[in-house]
Each structure stands twice: as structure tokens, then as C-alpha cells.
Amino acid sequence: MLKIPPRIGPGPVTTPCAPHTQISQNPEPEFHRAFKDRAFEFPFVTRQPSRISVPGAEAL
């Protein structure tokens, strides 16, 4: 089971306009991939390109 520890310290820096882009505190690629793989395993979730985010972003 994947366990995410509580946040310590300030939140990440993001861009001021939508869609927001997180600039700091980005996860390690392996952790990000594991999180996405787990999220897309749910039977009611479909994996598709985002219609509003940056190119290459995926939507749930």
C-alpha cells in the first residue's frame, strides 16, 4: 500500500494563472508514475488527454 506522509512546511510555488503549473516541490518521477498508475487502476476512472492543461497532461 502506498503511504503519503503529511506535508511539512509551506505549499509549493505555482504559476498565477490557470491552468496552474506547480513550479517547486515536484515529486520524484518514480513516485509520480506510481501515483498515476494506482489512480488509473480504479474501475470507474478513464485515462485520457486533458482538454484544459498543458500538452501531455492526463485527465481522470
How would you characterize the overall build of this protein?
The chain is an alpha+beta fold and 60 residues long. It has a domain at 32-59. It is 18% helix and 7% strand. It contains 1 helix and 2 strands. The protein has one helix at 29-39, and strands spanning 48-49, 58-59. Strands 1-2 form a two-stranded antiparallel ribbon. A hairpin with an 8-residue loop joins β1 and β2. The longest helix has 11 residues, at 29-39. It is flat.
Describe the structure using short key phrases.
60 residues, alpha+beta, two-stranded antiparallel ribbon, 1 helix, 18% helix
Task: Put the structure in a nutshell.
The protein is of the alpha+beta class.
Topology:
Elements: H1 29-39, E1 48-49, E2 58-59
Antiparallel strand pairs: 1-2
Gyration radius from CA atoms, angstroms: 13 Å
Mean pLDDT: 89
Give the biggest beta sheet.
2 strands, antiparallel
Order of helices and strands: HEE
Total helical elements: 1
Q: Report, as a whole number of angstroms, the end-to-end distance.
A: 21 Å
Poorly predicted residue ranges: none
Lateral arrangement of strands in the main beta sheet: 1-2
Task: Give the strand tally.
Answer: 2
Choose one word for the global shape: flat
SS content category: alpha+beta
Percent of residues in helices: 10-25%
How much strand content do the residues show? 5-15%
